[in-house]
Amino acid sequence: MRVGFARVSTKKNAQDISIAGQKQQLLKAGCDRVISERASAFQPGKKREGWEELWSLVAAGEVTEVVTIDQSRLSRSGDDLEFLQACALKGIIVRALSGGIIETESYSGFVTAGVLSVMNRAQSKLISAKVKDGIKRRREAGFYASGFVPFGYQVTKGKLDIHPENFPAARLMWEELDAMQFAVNAWITKHKADWSPSGLRGWIRNPMLRGIVYGQFDAVKALITFQEYERAVVCTKLRTQMRGVSASRNLLFTCLVKCAKCGYNLCHSFSGPYPRLKCLHLNCEHYGRGLRVSVVREKVVAALVARSQQMAELASEVDNRESPEERKIRGEILALEAVKHLSGVPALIAKQKTQLAALKKQPTGPRRELLSDLFADPGTLALATDEELRPIVIEFVSSIIWPGGLNNCLVTLR
To answer: What's the predicted TM-score (pTM) here?
Structure first.
């Protein structure tokens, strides 16, 4: 059986004519069957269904001749030589319509096939380098190369920017999701929104919302802070553990306290006079046992209060630390000071100092000194409702482990 092999590099519609033309030439050359694929042959180890099918036919001995337009259609990653040698062992002829029989048995044939293989691979590397360089230069010039932009942003003439109407709506959407502890299904149901749960989760995780584009920080105006994103990650992880528990049924320690023996979350129980957290994993030696919710609450509040002084010290360090933008402006001021005798330089120095002062006034990140004041007063957290306390626990508590006993739990803060 004579088998033809046709290939183009991508699935773009622009290459429809090329793949159709290859098939027509191969059928005209007398092929009984034509295998075609639309995939790059440059990346070694990449799965190519058409290429693997051709290999399987050769291995099974069902082929007498393989026909292709030229050697580059077989592969551009170097494994075309291995294929040619396998065909030679099976006595299969490999023919290129542009150059005749391709063989590796003779000295001249081996050299010719090897040179063509290296040239095809080098050509692909050169094209890839040119494309990457072009994309890099466009990005450095402020152009958004291609791809999907999340809700709240837009691309106008290649430039990425916020959408004047959707950006405020996206911010409101984030705040509502945050208030619902990122229960995406509940939010979609409430608003009857045209979002899929996976699509909304992908929007939440999109780095562009934090101002990151192609790994570059502050490339576009951020919709959220990094602290807000970290909270979303924690809440999303908890939502995954809750296995369908609705946001309205979230209690103070839902999916937050784990049994040290089995690693499963403790469940709320209201069967006795006091609300309790119990291990309900059948194979655990702590099954049916637990501790009061009030005990866990007391331990958590005590840990937060004990951390208050550390948070105050950390706040002082953060306030005294300059941001990269502040360091950049301060360096420019020092450079201008050296030539301040020149005309117009003093005005530039004054302008830079004004920008530096404005940056100093802008708080970045959570105001830990305010939170430390809140935690330093035990009565504030002790009198807080469960709904008020749960966001604080999610934000600052890393884990709560119950090792056993009626009055024992280990609280670890972030």
So the answer is: 0.44
